[in-house]
Design a protein that fits this description.
This protein is α+β, with helices and mostly antiparallel strands. It is built from 3 helices and 7 strands. The protein has a 7-stranded antiparallel sheet, with helices on one face. The chain is globular and about 40 Å long.
Length: about 140
């Protein structure tokens, strides 16, 4: 079965600061609450982000290939390639960060396939909610 999740969410921080944090692929501030450890390597010539999930999320390891980064437009796409405990057989994420004064609009879409579409949709929503909080916190901490 396949499904998707889309959202447009406001991040209470300027776009250039948000982009600096999200574009630092190994930044643990971004992964807080999701992963205890993040490793960056390459696979097939593109960045690979390996997330060691927290025990609260069931543990295990998930790896994402960063398939597109456009610094000028602040776009980033990724594809999960090692699913660990996720009930997915395919998962792709598409993020656009849009400047909106002293805030940022995150335009996000996930497309996925797997055995539990409802769980994948809930996971996508939960991850974005956590990401927004983490980005706001990371930007605020960087200003100190």
């Amino acid at each position: 079965m396949s499904g998707s999740y889309t959202t447009k969410t406001t991040i209470a921080a300027p776009a250039d600061a948000v982009w600096a944090v999200i574009n630092d692929l190994g930044n643990m501030d971004v992964a807080t609450g999701m992963a205890d450890k993040v490793e960056i390597s390459t696979r097939d010539g593109v960045p690979l982000r390996t997330l060691y999930l927290t025990p609260a999320l069931g543990g295990g390891v998930v790896a994402e290939k960063i398939t597109h980064i456009d610094n000028a437009k602040m776009h980033m796409n990724y594809e999960v390639v090692d699913f660990g405990p996720l009930p997915a057989t395919s998962y792709k994420g598409f993020m656009k960060f849009i400047a909106d004064g002293d805030k940022t609009l995150l335009d996000y879409e996930a497309r996925y396939e797997g055995s539990d579409i409802e769980a994948l949709g809930a996971m996508a929503k939960g991850n974005i909610d956590m990401l927004v909080t983490n980005l706001e916190t990371a930007v605020a901490n960087a200003k100190r």
